[in-house]
Every structure is written in C-alpha cells, then in structure tokens.
Amino acid sequence: MASLSRDANGNYTVQVVCGDGRRRSVRLGKVNKKTATEVKLKVEHLNSITVAKLPMDTETSQWVAGIGDDLAAKLAAVGLVPARESRTLRRFLDDYIAGRAGDGHTKPATLVTIRRVADDLTAVLGATADLRDVSVGHAERFKRFYQDKDLAPATTYRRLKMAKMLFNHAVKLKLVAENPFADVKGKNTNPAERRHYVTEADTRRLIEAANPTWRTIIALARFAGLRCPSEVLSLRWENVDFATNRMTVSSPKTEHLEGRAYRVVPIFARLRPFLEEAFELAEPGEVYVVGGRQGGAYRATAQKPGGWVNTNLRTTFEKLIRRAGLQAWPRLFHNLRASCETDLMRDHPIHVVTAWIGNTPKIALGHYLQTLEADFEKAVRGGADSGAVAVQKAVQSRAAGDGPQTTRTPEALEIRGSRRPGSSAGDNCPSVQMAKVGLEPTRLWGARF
Predict the structure, then answer these.
(1) Residue 188 pLDDT
(2) Is the residue at 229 inside a domain?
(3) Same domain, yes or no, for 104 and 52?
(4) Torsions phi, psi for 266 (to 5 deg)
(5) End position of a domain, from candidates 171, 189, 207
(6) 414 in any annotated domain
(7) Residue 37 domain boundaries
(8) What is the DSSP letter of 288?
(9) Distance (Å, rounded) from C-alpha 431 to C-alpha 416?
(10) CB of 67 within 8 A of CB of 28?
(11) Which has the closest alpha carbon to 294: 308, 280, 281?
C-alpha cells in the first residue's frame, strides 16, 4: 500500500514500502489533490507488479510513457520504472539507418530515401532536438516544409509516410510515448494530368520507328506490362517458354516481399511476334531477351548500386517518340504498363490481372486503371446487344417446343454462307489467321545452345 501526505507548504509526497521492505518517498511538490491521488494509485500498482515481477499492462505502460521526465526520474529512483533513455533526433536516426543498412534485406534505393528524409527532419527540427520534445506541431511544420518546396503530392505522401515509420520505431523502443506523425497525412494520388493511355495504334507507330532492341523493350512494357527498366532488362531467355506460352518475370522491386520475387506471365498474342523476332536475331549464347551490345549497355547504366534508374532509356525513348511523330506523355514507361493493365481488365478479373502485372488491386485502382471513351461505347453497344440476345433466346425457345432441332446463330450462318463452294467445314475460318511461320518459332531453343 502507498500513503499520501501533505506538508505545511502544500507539497504532496507519496510513500510506499518496496519489495525490499524499505519505505521510500516520491515527492510530487505543489500539485492539486486529484493529481496527487492519481499518482498514488499508479505508484501502488507499479509497486505491486514490481514485487510480483510482472510486466506492465498496456494502460500503465502508456501512463508511464506520457508522464514528464521529472516524475519519471523520481519513479526510477525508487525502482518502480526503468530509467528513461535520452536520445537526440540525429542519434536516433543514425542508429536506425545503421541497423537497416546491416540487416541484409533493405535495398540501397530504400536507404537513399531514408537518409533523405532523416536529413530533412534534422534540418527542420534540429539535430540535437530530444525525441520526446517532437510534437504534432513540429510534424505539421515538417509537412509544410515539403509543401513549400512544391513537391508532387505523391512524393510528399511517401516522405511523410517514411517520417511516420521512423517515429513508429521510436514508439516501439519506448523512446517516445506516441507518434507525432500519426495523423499527419498527405495525398497519395495519381493526378489526371499524369495519366495517359497509350493506344495500340501509337504503340505500333513507335515500334515501326524503332530498331529491334527497342521493339522488344516497347512490346514487353506495353503488351506484357513489365516494369521498365528493371523487369524488361532482367528477363532471360531461359525463363521464356514458347511451348507453354508463359514466361517467368523476375521483379527486383518486390523481391524482398514474401512470394513476390517473381511472377508467371502469359506470352500474350500481341507480344509473341516480337519475342520471336528477338529470339531469331539473338546471337548464340545470348542470355537476356533485351540482349546484344545495346541491351548490355542499358543494363550497365540503368542498374546502379542504389537501384534501377531510367537515365539513358528515357532520353533515347523520348527521341524515338519524336521520330514517330508523337508527343511525349507524362510518365513514359509507367503509362505503357498502366495502358496494358487497363486493356487486360476488359477481359479478365482484377485478381488475375494484378497477378500478371505484379501489383495489388488497391494500387491498380488508384494508379493504373483508366476509364476510356471505348468503355462508354462498349456500354452503349452492350445495352443494344442485350435486347438482340433476348429476342434470339425467345426464338430458340419457341423452336425447342416443336421438338429437338439445331439452332444456328446469325454469326454461324454468316460463316457458313461465306464458305467457298466445294470446300469442307475446316477449310474456311475467316475469324482465325495463321502466321506464316506457324505457331512456334522456326528454330527451337535447344538447337541454338
């Protein structure tokens, strides 16, 4: 049990008999009786769990974390709570970065981002600022610091999210009671002016103006939705299976996430001719799909210690866009990938499409998928088609009442009527066109190596 006393000067003192049998005092000074009584109850509880060697419950832990340094030091002096560790902002950030750099999992590009946000935090809040002194007001000031720099909203969002993550770590270490960035948020949006749908017609114009290497790069990005440069330049021939129409795509961006180091993607019909062309033109022993001297040079310049960058690819692609008589769009490679995902969503459910593209439904809906004029036209056509289908079903139903018989759709009749005289049923199929080289490449992979 603890007792509460008040001297002639109005100073309150809590006395408690600790586990060693000795009576100790916690001097509170001039506080009101309600506060003194609350502290007395907490001291009783802290003493009981200390004697029983039990961990603090959540409520008590939060109370201890929220009290001032002076009271915390007095409670620590009588052995009721651990002594608080004082840590400056810069020291905490340096320790965190050192830990991430040595964990063997954090990518160099992520470390670059963490260091950038850490430098900004110390520039705005002060390197010697005590972590416990960082308030919500300081966090809001840090947000305004980014807003005044006119950064893109998505960039501000990512950096504020990083600052929130850093202080979440401080909370876990019990260096601060709560996260001052918990309610400081930015807007993670993809503005309309940065969205652009690259049509198949424009893609074909680009491909016609490109050399074989760039034809492959464009086709992989637009017709398969691969990230460029990382996934496009990482694709190997050993992971392309023409027989099963599948390819295994390594994903450097998500390889640190469980189950997302690679994904299996179909060799889409629009992509296959360009893969076959690249296969035919590849030198014996070539490892990469985007190979040769040019592909090797791109890998050397785009794959840096800090991660993949677009550098030379972007510059060359802009020249190619101008050569094709087109205007460059806001996000050159991302818009190709987003256009591919938008196309795929017309024929496949979202969980299938995102598995092929390598993102999540939330990211796809917020940053990739677009509503096109063709979607409105399809909706209008769909309404008219629904009426035609209803009429056809009614005709078939009446015909079925007269006894079993074969019902031909207008499409089937049209195909039948277009058959050449004297030809068999398998000789004429106007809806299917075969490539001159057949279904498979003219040379097999095993014949090359």
Answers:
(1) 66
(2) yes
(3) no
(4) -65, 150
(5) 189
(6) no
(7) 2-77
(8) B
(9) 12
(10) no
(11) 281
pLDDT in tens, 215-269: 999 999 999 999 999 999 999 999 999 999 999 999 988 887 788 889 999 999 9
pLDDT of residue 305: 67
Q: Cβ distance 246 to 319 under 8 Å? A: no
Write the Ramachandran bin of 310: left for phi over 0, alpha for psi from -120 to 50, otherwise beta.
alpha
Two tokens, residue 340: 């591919």
Where is the domain boundary, 189, 208, 227?
A: 189
Residues 6+ apart with CB under 8 A from 345: 353, 369
Looking at the structure, do residues 109 and 6 belong to the same domain, yes or no?
A: no
**Same domain flag for 229 and 342:** yes
According to DSSP H, which parts of 19-68 are helical? 33-51, 58-66
Query: Can you tell me the distance from the alpha carbon of 183 to that of 250, in angstroms, rounded to the nearest whole number?
Result: 37
Total count of domains within the chain: 3
Residues 159, 205, single domain; the answer is no
**β-strands 262-266, 246-250: how paired?**
antiparallel
Q: What are phi and psi of 25, to 5 degrees?
A: -115, 140
Q: Are residues 240 and 368 in the same domain?
A: yes
* Separation of alpha carbons 348 and 382, rounded Å: 17
DSSP designation for 258:
T
Kindly report the CATH number assigned to the domain that includes residue 365.
Answer: 1.10.443.10
Whether the bond into 404 is cis, omega within 30 of 0: no
Around 176, how many Cα atoms within 13 Å sit in the side-chain half-sphere? Answer: 24
H or E segment to which residue 26 belongs: strand 23-29
DSSP 197: -
For Cα atoms 268, 272, 277, give the angle at the middle one, nearest 5 degrees: 160
On whether both 285 and 208 belong to a single domain, the answer is yes
Give, in order, the Cα–Cα distances in Å from 286 to each of 135, 238, 265, 300.
58, 10, 21, 16
In the structure encoding, which two tokens stand for residue 194, read together?
């940065």
**244 and 345 both lie in a single domain:** yes
